[in-house]
Design goal:
Helix content is 44%, strand content 13%. The protein contains 13 helices and eight strands. This is DUF4192 domain-containing protein.
């Protein structure tokens, strides 16, 4: 397998952005290591003065110790709060407790950085006489960043989707006619017809026609059909409950999941009003499976703006806000990997 090497702090900080898909703000980002190989990435909001740091640390440890092969952690504190040489290290009490808990589990803090608006500083060396502040611009010129950009990766300025405000086509009458047709059908037959159309969309490469889009939007408005279609997205056989909760032992077919995201965005662009709620909620579930809590929350909130009583959006958003991750997102073998990282192994740590 081709290997991409990390040789400088710039490479590592660039990897944090590429792994998340966006540049984090007021965040603690951890990357797990297994010897010299890169594992999963984790992002959480930085604690506030009112945060219970013990509970905060316990939650971090819960996420990290799900990877039983992790032997090390590197971290980045991304914040706009200014820091100058001689100032106390930000969040030092929390990070000291965190490092101690990691050590008790046999996991070493290998390195860490404070990443500001224009510079970054090695967090572990901030108490030395002359801590070095490096320009953040150097990250864009790093070798790893250039390679990942070449492979199609990008770092967005924020974690949110670029979700348009209005539909590009008014299919509401077609959707309504399909709803009447579905209501008149035997529920089993309606579900099977929906699954056949859905599978054709996910296994193909063409965008749905307006007629197909209207039919799929209508199917998603029926709860039992919607749940079955969401459970079909990963392309594996298991109980519908375990599929919806992202807790199967078998890994999803993530390329098919990516395709479902594209199709759902296409449907969203052709839905309007309350019809958008099931589409946005389905998108949010996918983001939750992938471990993208901020994007999932945005989808659920937009779904609830369209339909304040939409139950699945309410329930799943509670999971996100409580910091509960899908099992897939915490599994080394099953976790989502962006397309540009599915080929090469990232390792070969060469930092001093």
């Amino acid at each position: 397998m081709e290997k991409l090497s990390i040789k400088t702090p710039d490479d590592f900080i660039a990897l944090m952005g590429h792994s998340l898909g966006f540049w984090p703000h007021e965040s603690l980002v951890c990357i797990l290591l297994d010897g010299r190989r890169i594992g999963a990435s984790l992002r959480v909001n930085l604690p506030t003065p009112a945060t219970d740091t013990t509970r905060y640390t316990e939650q971090l440890m819960h996420y990290i110790t799900t990877d039983h092969q992790a032997t090390g952690v590197v971290f980045g504190i991304f914040t706009h709060t200014p820091w100058a040489p001689g100032d106390p290290r930000p969040h030092q009490d929390m990070l000291d407790e965190f490092a101690g808990r990691l050590g008790a589990e046999g996991i070493t803090v290998r390195d860490g950085w404070l990443v500001g608006e224009t510079t970054f500083t090695n967090y572990l060396h901030m108490n030395t006489r002359h801590p070095v502040q490096h320009p953040l611009d150097g990250i864009t010129a790093s070798q790893l960043n250039a390679e990942l950009v070449f492979r199609g990766s990008s770092i967005e300025p924020s974690p949110g989707f670029r979700i348009p405000v209005t539909a590009t086509a008014d299919l509401s009458q077609k959707v309504l006619r399909n709803c009447y047709r579905i209501e008149a059908m035997n529920p089993h037959d309606a579900t099977e017809q929906a699954r056949t159309l859905w599978a054709r969309m996910l296994d193909g490469g063409a965008d749905p026609t307006d007629d197909e889009a209207a039919e799929l939007i209508a199917y998603l408005k029926f709860i039992t059909v919607r749940d079955r279609l969401i459970a079909d997205i990963p392309g594996i056989e298991d109980s519908m409950r375990d599929l919806l909760l992202g807790q199967t032992t078998q890994s999803p077919h993530w390329q098919r999941v990516d395709r479902a995201t594209d199709v759902l965005f296409h449907l969203y662009m052709r839905a309007d009003g309350p019809d958008t709620a099931p589409v946005l909620t389905s998108l949010g579930v996918i983001q939750w499976w992938e471990g993208h809590g901020s994007k999932a929350h945005q989808c659920f909130q937009k779904a609830l703006e369209a339909d304040p009583d939409y139950r699945l959006a309410q329930l799943t958003d509670h999971l996100v806000r409580d910091g509960i991750l899908a099992d897939w997102a915490t599994s080394r073998n099953n976790a989502y990997q962006p397309p540009h990282t599915r080929g090469p192994e990232i390792g070969g740590l060469g930092m001093a």
